[in-house]
Amino acid sequence: MTVDAELEERITRIALVAHDQMKDRMIDWAKAHADVLSKFELFGTGTTGGRIANEVKLRITPLKSGPLGGDAQIGAMIAEGKLDMLIFFIDPMSALPHDVDVKSLLRLATLYNTILAINEATASRVLNHVRPAG
């Protein structure tokens, strides 16, 4: 199967995560893509999920904050086949107090071949190629 064919697959569930310094960028990105995102079942960690619900007006299932177990919740969803795509805006310039959790989440996304975008450019391009199931 070609990469384009794989990206054209139908998905339903997307998790949205952003480090503290990237939350504003995630909100701006979600606003710019709200019409497309509204067609999917969304999950979001802590503040990111709350801000997307309040500021972007998207329906999103809230999870715990990343360091308080939200990253682990998303990792479990990936391992159980309950998440199709992870959009995780990572701040490459900040030290992360819960770096082990982040690495585990990225490792699980890689291991289970989950669609993964860690910056705006990739997230936008991938989102343009996936279609909601149903």
Topology of this protein?
Elements: H1 3-7, E1 10-11, E2 13-18, H2 23-32, H3 34-37, E3 41-45, H4 46-56, E4 60-63, H5 70-79, E5 85-89, H6 99-111, E6 115-117, H7 120-127, E7 131-132
Helix pairs in contact: 2-4, 5-6
Written overview of the protein:
This protein has helices at residues 3-7, 23-32, 34-37, 46-56, 70-79, 99-111, 120-127, and strands spanning 10-11, 13-18, 41-45, 60-63, 85-89, 115-117, 131-132. The protein starts with a helix and ends with a strand. It is globular and about 35 Å long. The chain has a five-stranded parallel beta sheet, sandwiched between helices. A two-stranded parallel sheet has the order 1-7. Helix 5 (70-79) packs parallel to helix 6 (99-111). Helix content is 46%, strand content 20%. It has seven helices and seven strands, in the order αββααβαβαβαβαβ. The protein has 134 residues and is of the alpha/beta class.
